[in-house]
């Protein structure tokens, strides 16, 4: 797999590139946001994943992520020292598929790279028969992957949509965290749990319906169907 590493620290980039190469990745190193954007022309330039550090010399990493997402659907993993939930949600809202908080374990990073690369391959066995789901003011169009609330389109990332669609198929039913991670993230790796929490928080915020997805302590989540 070709991987675009966006990192302004040459020493960090060299060490990480060596590790990634040992695990079969063909790494291209971009030292700035502009260099990264140029590397993705045309149409993503064949990269499978973008590993984007937010501390870039020429542009804010969030801005670069937004520009990448406008150009291509390549999975983007943000690398950040910001561990607060608000920063993570902001990154997801801009189109990031995942994030890694510094300092990170190399094994964790590799697992996340493999996880987001698997997400881009649709699994038709998990596609529900229904083409449209209606939950009070919420309408979920599965073929077009569009979500609207009271007729207004809500922009969701791929994983936010997948998560919402999964829960909405069986309103009121509790989905275990492990089950959600397995079906939405295609992995059993436990570290994805925090990513799940951030995606749930982001959905509640974007839909402006904090009570729509209920946390069942110690078990998982369920969708509480709103009144029509």
SSE order in H/E notation? EHEHEHEHEHEEEEHEHHEE
The radius of gyration over CA amounts to 18 Å
| Amino-to-carboxy terminus distance | 46 Å
Number of strands: 12
What portion of residues belong to β-strands?
Answer: 15-25%
Q: Tally the helices: what do you get?
A: 8
Runs in which pLDDT lies below 50 for 5 or more consecutive residues are 121-129
Keywords for this entry:
228 residues, alpha/beta, 5-stranded parallel sheet, 4-stranded antiparallel sheet, CheY-like_superfamily, DNA-binding, transcription regulation, Sensory transduction protein RegX3
Describe the protein.
Pfam families: Response_reg, Trans_reg_C. With 228 residues, the protein is α/β, with parallel strands linked by helices. Helix content is 39%, strand content 21%. The chain is built from eight helices and twelve strands. Strands 2-1-3-4-5 form a five-stranded parallel β-sheet, sandwiched between helices. Strands 6-7-8-9 form a four-stranded antiparallel β-sheet, with helices on one face. A three-stranded antiparallel β-sheet has the order 10-12-11. Helix 2 (33-39) runs parallel beside helix 3 (61-71), helix 4 packs across helix 8 (193-207) and helix 6 packs across helix 7 (177-185).
């Amino acid at each position: 797999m070709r991987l675009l590493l966006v990192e302004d620290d040459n020493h960090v980039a060299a060490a990480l590139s060596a590790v990634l190469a040992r695990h079969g990745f063909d790494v291209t190193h971009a030292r700035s946001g502009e260099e990264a954007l140029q590397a993705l022309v045309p149409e993503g330039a064949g990269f499978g994943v973008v590993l984007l550090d937010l501390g870039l010399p020429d542009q804010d990493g969030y801005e670069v992520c937004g520009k990448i997402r406008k150009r291509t659907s390549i999975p983007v993993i943000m690398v950040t020292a910001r561990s607060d939930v608000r920063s993570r949600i902001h990154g997801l809202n801009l189109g990031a598929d995942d994030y890694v908080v510094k300092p990170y374990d190399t094994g964790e990073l590799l697992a996340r790279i493999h996880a987001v690369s698997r997400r881009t391959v649709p699994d038709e066995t998990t596609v529900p028969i229904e083409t449209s789901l209606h939950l009070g003011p919420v309408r979920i169009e599965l073929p077009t992957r569009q979500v609207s609330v009271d007729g207004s389109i809500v922009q969701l990332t791929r994983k936010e949509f997948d998560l919402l669609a999964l829960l909405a198929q069986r309103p009121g039913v509790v989905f275990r965290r492990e089950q959600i991670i397995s079906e939405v993230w295609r992995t059993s790796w436990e570290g994805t749990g925090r990513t799940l929490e951030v995606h749930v928080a982001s959905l509640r915020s974007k839909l402006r319906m904090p009570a729509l997805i209920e946390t069942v302590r110690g078990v998982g989540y369920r969708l509480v169907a709103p009144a029509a």
